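Priority: medium. Attachment 1 of 2:
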């Protein structure tokens, strides 16, 4: 499917339109409320004080400090208690517990991209965790504005046996100021927007946003797998199927093919040598899934990234080449060379098919979840009948038919 898609895309020197920017997007005027400066200042002061005490009390090394202060800084309840109460037990948590606790209920913060990248790429050098770690899957939504299919995703997430199995991050346009009011407190999407920058179709800013999402999700140490989705993606299976498929895989699902045509190697620029040779150049759909250590590698990358940013601009599309190429060079045995997000390229041309209300019925769902659209693939080296967990592109008006199909698709809801 993917290879066929790539060929179809290649013929038109095509380009998936990613998290497409809808020109009719409403721009809402309300501004996101500023962060309470005093609270943050207090948190920063408390953090410094506490950090020093932690060194004395528990002999922690300096290397732990930045992560530690980050947890505190973003942890709202702590900022309301005085440094003294934090010392006397810090909400009844041990230092290790505080170290590994989910940073905050909100994904928002005021770090710059540079600060964020630095904070996000701390990585334990010891592979085993000295505590029972339940891996979380981070679902990262790249969208221009609203997430019209969120009610379907909310149903999907309601099948999680615990909220500690997943987390949600949303990168919307900075113009999209209705974000704060989009979801109710009960929603997994509530306050999950991350600080964002403008994204242009086919431009490196698209990959900047992907990296920004990864960096934000890395701040939560429990996040172990990272999935990129768009506002037009839907799940094809229920939460437990998706969760076990992703966490049980030895490979990260990054599409990567060596396409000899003009839409593949034809987009390679000699300026990328010596870091990347034409033989190493890969193409793949933007919608990836990554293991944590590979996510760290991507966010920390300052070897390939600046060169791609400079030398892969339209008609080279960085979002179709950066990750497939860099993963194929740096960690070829770690990636499945296929995406878990299905898309229909059968129409040919630069853009995949968008499905509307009229397309979505039970027969469609059956096709999507069986060999007709799933095709054949390998999973952990074995033949598998489940190859795609997500599907795109679904227009907003597919919500109602999808909700109606949800009980059949999910087994609940
Ligand atoms: C974030 O907020 C704190 C507290 O108000 C402030 O000291 C710091 O400079 C801010 N950082 C950025 C990058 O704006
Ligand atoms: C993915 O492709 C690379 C070559 O780029 C290969 O080394 C690797 O084994 C492939 N992965 C799988 C799961 O087949
Ligand atoms: C996955 O990788 C681990 C560690 O390399 C290995 O022990 C395990 O057998 C692999 N599982 C499969 C299904 O390939
Ligand atoms: C999720 O889907 C699988 C496969 O269809 C099914 O066996 C399982 O019962 C479903 N889980 C729930 C909670 O419905």
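Attachment 2 of 2:
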């Amino acid at each position: 499917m993917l290879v066929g898609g790539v060929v179809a895309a290649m013929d038109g020197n095509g380009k998936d339109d990613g998290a497409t920017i809808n020109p009719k997007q409403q721009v809402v005027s309300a501004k996101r409320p500023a962060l309470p400066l005093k609270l943050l200042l207090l948190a920063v002061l408390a953090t410094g004080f506490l950090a020093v005490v932690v060194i004395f009390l528990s002999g922690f090394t300096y290397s732990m400090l930045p992560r530690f202060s980050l947890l505190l800084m973003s942890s709202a309840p702590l900022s309301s208690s005085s440094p003294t109460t934090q010392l006397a037990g810090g909400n009844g948590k041990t230092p290790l517990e505080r170290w590994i606790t989910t940073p905050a209920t909100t994904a928002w913060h005021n770090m710059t991209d540079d600060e964020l990248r630095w904070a996000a790429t701390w990585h334990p050098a010891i592979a085993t965790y000295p505590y029972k770690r339940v891996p979380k899957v981070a679902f990262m939504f790249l969208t221009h504005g609203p997430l019209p299919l969120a009610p379907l995703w909310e149903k999907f997430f309601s099948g999680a046996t615990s909220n500690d199995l997943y987390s949600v991050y949303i990168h919307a346009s900075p113009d999209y100021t209705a974000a704060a009011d989009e979801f109710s407190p009960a929603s997994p999407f509530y306050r999950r927007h991350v600080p964002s920058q403008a994204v242009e179709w086919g431009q490196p800013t698209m990959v900047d946003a992907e990296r920004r999402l990864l960096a934000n999700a890395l701040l939560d140490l429990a996040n172990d797998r990272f999935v990129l989705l768009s506002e037009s993606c839907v799940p094809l299976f229920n939460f437990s199927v998706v969760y076990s498929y992703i966490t049980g895989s030895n490979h990260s699902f990054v599409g990567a093919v060596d396409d000899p045509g003009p839409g593949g190697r034809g987009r390679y620029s000699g300026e990328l040598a010596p870091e990347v040779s034409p033989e190493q150049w890969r193409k793949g759909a933007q919608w990836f899934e990554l293991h944590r250590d590979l996510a760290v590698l991507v966010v920390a990358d300052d070897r390939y990234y600046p060169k791609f940013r400079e030398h892969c601009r339209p008609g080279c599309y960085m979002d179709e080449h950066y990750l497939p190429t860099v993963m194929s060079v740096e960690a070829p045995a770690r990636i499945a060379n296929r995406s878990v997000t299905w898309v229909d390229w059968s129409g040919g041309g630069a853009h995949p098919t968008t499905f509307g209300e009229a397309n979505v019925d039970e027969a469609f769902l059956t096709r999507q979840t069986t060999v007709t659209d799933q095709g054949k693939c390998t999973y952990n080296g074995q033949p598998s009948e489940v190859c795609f967990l997500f599907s795109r592109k679904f227009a907003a008006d597919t919500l109602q038919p999808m909700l109606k199909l949800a009980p059949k698709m999910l087994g609940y809801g």
